[in-house]
Specification:
This protein is α/β, with parallel strands linked by helices. The chain is built from 16 helices and 16 strands. Strands 5-4-8-1-9-10-2-11 form an 8-stranded mixed β-sheet, with helices on both faces. The chain has a 4-stranded antiparallel β-sheet with strand order 13-14-15-16, with helices on one face. The protein has a two-stranded parallel ribbon with strand order 3-12. A hairpin with a 4-residue loop joins strand 15 and strand 16. It is globular.
């Protein structure tokens, strides 16, 4: 009997050894262009690039609804927004309903979620969680622990939650495989970097996108009414609203009381020893506006640079965090048996069309970075151009861990792509549905379908269609919906869109679309 128990224990230990761990890292609003594995023009991210060198880079990974809470609900459920119920940023995610954490727990995995959650509920199904309330704060972040207490952890948010993740890895049950969801707050607005990286980035200059000074003339309603413009919408100085002190004498920039309160709330959380230096750097920008009387395109030119300096300085901290985590895996001999996934909740405008933020089905925001390293399974330095979507993330994590994917998940496992078993998925079109309107950035709700070459978008509340030829117009500048040459393509894409709506069981708005 004793022998049998020993045998079972040993067999169990061997089995657990073999079952891979998954470290899923998701940053917030981290666009592909701000990762040097995708684009070397703006920043060097050697640690994220290391994952690409040792693993696989997806060049065509997309979301189904390019906004934060919906992307997070999709990660947990493998479902599009209309199925998991989180269509916008203010709907509560019902975490008591089966999600990947419950499934992995039943499969004997140890699970944790650390960092941004943003689903208006507490996580359920995880063995461990520690989350930032709402959007989280950059300095001395408030953190909700499993006891339901809100505590404050001293330091810069990216460093703080990296410490939390490493602490959990240290104290986890080492006899069980793990899945850790590690969710950064950065580089989300308000783009407040750590002083170390602001010092490095505030003097750099970045190339301007060709469409930075575009106006909305000739475009449809959605372009005309969006409020995503860097010039008219984004605030100055780390998007911190403005420092009343040095901008008071410029009438059109006079901050209102709300701006001052927000500015002070952020500045007051910074370490006392660093605050003056932050203020000095921001004040230089203020003086430039005042002395050069910057306005319109000239002001946009500067605001774009300041935006990029702050945003990329936030990304630099993320890359440092990834380096620390990868070192931890190396030092603890976990690298070989851990699949590491790096992604973001969606893409982000870095000045294209003069914009920041996301939401649109246009590629800049619909796309998301996706890099996976899994030694022994993924050929180093591989690149795939196959179309994938965030509904596939949950099935992929389950499949990597050897856990059955439930039929209610709408995505497919990417494991056969990762291991090189297949080159392309049989799915030829991706589905997109954006809902949130009016709260931030006034992007009109829309449906879209994206294939290899064409994208069809339907802004259904205003009954306007758009068609883009992604091969000949990758920046999606020319809506060719009225082109007589395209009518056959349009008919075909509308049929495919209706088919996808049936397949995914999405019937809002009701009826056949044509
Ligand atoms: C805040 C931001 C918006 C952003 C939303 C959603 N405004 O409201 O720019 O789109 O969050 O972001 S801010 O003035 O408060 O910074 S998301 O990542 O949660 O989807
Ligand atoms: Ca986001």
């Amino acid at each position: 009997m004793r022998l049998l128990v020993v045998f079972i224990l040993l067999a169990n230990a061997a089995f657990c050894q073999l079952r891979p761990n998954v470290l899923y890292i998701m940053s917030d609003d981290h666009d592909n262009d701000a990762i040097s594995a995708y684009n070397k023009q703006f920043i060097s991210t050697p640690n994220i690039d290391r994952l690409a060198k040792e693993g696989m880079k997806f060049t065509k990974a997309f979301t189904g609804n390019s906004i934060c809470s919906p992307a997070r609900a999709t990660l947990l459920t493998g479902q599009h927004s209309h199925k998991n119920g989180v269509k916008n940023n203010f709907t509560r995610f019902d975490s008591s309903k089966t999600n990947i954490a419950h499934i992995l727990e039943n499969a004997g995995y140890q699970t944790a979620v650390i960092g941004k959650w943003h689903l208006h509920s507490y996580p359920a199904g995880f063995d461990y969680w520690k989350i930032l309330p709402g959007q989280g704060l950059y300095f001395d972040p408030r953190i909700i622990n499993m006891a339901g207490d809100t505590i404050t952890e001293k330091g810069y948010v990216t460093d703080v939650i990296t410490d939390d993740a490493i602490n959990w890895l240290n104290q986890r049950d080492k006899n069980k495989p793990f899945v850790l969801l590690f969710h950064h707050k950065a580089p989300h607005r308000n783009f407040v970097p750590s002083l170390k990286y602001l010092e490095q980035y505030h003097t750099k200059a970045f190339p301007e996108p060709a469409t930075l000074y575009n106006d909305t003339a000739g475009h449809g309603s959605a372009w005309r009414i969006q409020t995503m413009g860097i010039l008219p919408v984004m605030k100055l100085c780390g998007d911190l609203k403005v420092d009343p002190g040095y901008l008071m004498d410029i009438p059109e920039l006079k901050p209102d009381a709300v701006d001052i309160a927000t500015y002070n709330a952020i500045m007051n959380r910074m370490p006392d020893s660093e605050r003056e230096r932050f203020k000095e750097i921001y004040a230089e920008r203020g003086r430039l506006i005042r002395d050069k009387k910057l306005a319109r395109n000239e002001l946009l030119k500067y605001k774009y640079q300041w935006y990029m300096q702050d945003y990329l300085a936030c990304v630099a901290s993320i890359d440092e965090s990834i380096g620390r985590i990868l070192n931890y895996l190396d030092e603890n001999k976990l690298s070989n048996n851990t699949a590491v996934i790096y992604t973001s909740d969606q893409g982000f405008y870095l000045g294209e069309n003069g914009w920041f933020d996301k939401r649109f089905a246009y590629d800049v925001s619909m796309q998301t970075p996706l890099i996976v390293r899994w030694p022994g399974y993924i050929k180093p330095n591989s690149v795939t151009n196959t179309l994938v979507q965030n509904i596939d993330f949950a099935p992929t994590i389950l499949d990597i861990t050897g856990t059955k994917v439930p039929p209610w998940m709408q995505g497919v496992s990417l494991k056969p792509i990762l291991t090189g078993k297949i080159k392309d998925l049989s799915r030829k079109y991706l589905y997109y549905h954006y809902y949130e309107f009016g709260k931030d950035h006034t992007v009109i709700p829309h449906l879209a379908i994206r294939g290899e070459q064409y994208k069809l978008i339907y802004f259904y509340t205003v009954n306007e269609w758009e068609l883009y030829d992604l091969k000949n117009d990758p920046a999606e500048q020319n809506n060719i919906i009225r082109s007589p040459k395209q009518q056959a393509i349009i008919k075909q894409l509308k049929t495919e869109l209706n088919k996808l709506r049936d397949q995914y069981d999405d019937h809002e708005p009701a009826g056949e679309l044509n």
